[in-house]
Amino acid sequence: MNKLPPHDIDTEEAFLGSVLLDSNIPALTSLSGPDFYSERNQAIFEAAVSLYQQGVSINQVTLAHELAGRDKLETIGGAAFLSHLVSVCPTSLDWPYYEKIIKNLSTKRKLIAVSDQIAGLGYSLDGDIEEDISKADNLLLDIRKQVSKVEIMTPEMRAEKALLTYQELKEKSGGIAVRTGLADVDRYLGGGAYPGELVLIGGRGGIGKTTIARTIANNIGSRGGKVLYFTCEMPGQSLTDRDVAGYLGKPVDAIRYGDYDQSEPGLFERITGGAIEYIAKSNVYDVDGVTDTKRVRSLSLLMQQRYGLAAVVVDYLGLLSDSYGRTANDRIGYISRNLKQIAIELNVPLFSPVQLNRNLENREDKRPQLYDLRDSGSLEQDADVVLLLYRNSYYKETGDNTAEVIIAKKRQGQANKIIKVNYDETHQRYCNLQREGN
User: Fold this and answer.
1) Residue 47: is its pLDDT beyond 90?
2) Among residues 14, 28, 51, 436, which one has the fewest Cβ atoms lying within 10 Å of its Cβ?
3) Structural domains in the chain?
4) 371 prior amide bond cis, ω within 30
5) DSSP-H helix ranges across 281-376
6) Looking at 211-220, 227-236, 264-273, 401-410, which range is the least confident one?
7) What are the pLDDT digits (tens) for 329-356?
8) H runs (alpha helix) in 223-366
């Protein structure tokens, strides 16, 4: 009696129901059409992927239209079957669990197919035995490569990869580092932040962490780089107010207060003219509201595929809503590891402000140190670069706008550098320090 290949139709349907509930899943999953045992489910998944690639939201209506255009709507059971998929999946949160089951069963079917091929080699009376064994090894190796993302890299493979990398670098105008726009900071970072790096910006509350993060985002955007900015601490409109104030050279309060005709005639025209055009062309894309690292990854992947992506900013790390472990240290360590993996996966720098411990307030010298990072030693471990903020005017009235950016950690190169920049509190921005002769 012939056995059916391993499969689970219910799990496939639950996964497709998840896709109908969350249009971002095609960007996140490692599944492809052939991973589905059911031809009907395979057709539905491939249609959903096509919609995603077109930038069309995936739902019962759009998916039915796409399937009809492929002459497959009636084949899969019509729109009624799509309604069935939604009914069997009340939430999309469990899709990674369904994905794992589908992938495992798909791999087992591939093993069965390969075993038949290996059996054919064994039954064949022709050919060299060493060559047949080599073919069998390669068949199994192909499956192993599909299952495991980890590969042993030989010296020859490493050299070949390095050669391609350095050839690309040779032709890359301006290098591959993403410049923060703060010239001296970029110089000491070796040109700026590098793809795959987690850059933490530490400081006490109110010292200007969001301001420097937004300054960096705007500077990257002004050079044509697309930035995805997650704002967890304040409404996105507040950041827009700061952007407008900085562009017009006006205090933020003047922008937020309103009543422009009375406060300054002509200000409204300047806002709706130059400032709004500046915002529209800023290349900074905002995500407003508290989120978690899963959503950071999901939306960043979506951004990269639809618009391109030069950098991600998460403002700030401690406000991400992930739950993990029993202590704050466990949770923050989990978040920092996830953010680091997102930076690596997307191959872009990820900037994130972080809070510092209050203990430094008890020291005579209140310049922050690396050990002042709040809640977790994992932050120090996971970060590639740690920038710490300090300025005298934070603690006492000095009339001095100079701020210090302390490079407390730099995984590639020398750290413990202090770079002075200008902090423009009125317009909420950081600038390069003006020197004589500039």
Assistant:
1) yes
2) 436
3) 1-151 (1.10.860.10), 183-432 (3.40.50.300)
4) no
5) 293-306, 328-346
6) 264-273
7) 889 998 999 999 999 989 999 999 999 8
8) 236-248, 252-257, 260-263, 267-270, 276-280, 293-306, 328-346
